[in-house]
Amino acid sequence: MTTHRSPKPTGHSAQPVERTVTAALLLALVAGLAWIGGMIYTVLGWPL
Q: How many CA atoms does the CB half-sphere of 28 hold within 13 Å?
């Protein structure tokens, strides 16, 4: 009788994905902060 064994996870294959996700989140954070800064600059530039 044969037993089913799941393949052993490789530890180093998840690292590039994690690095990519972290880089994407940091890029999104920088873009969001730049957008908020641009909105504040625009509102402050309006004549009241």
A: 6
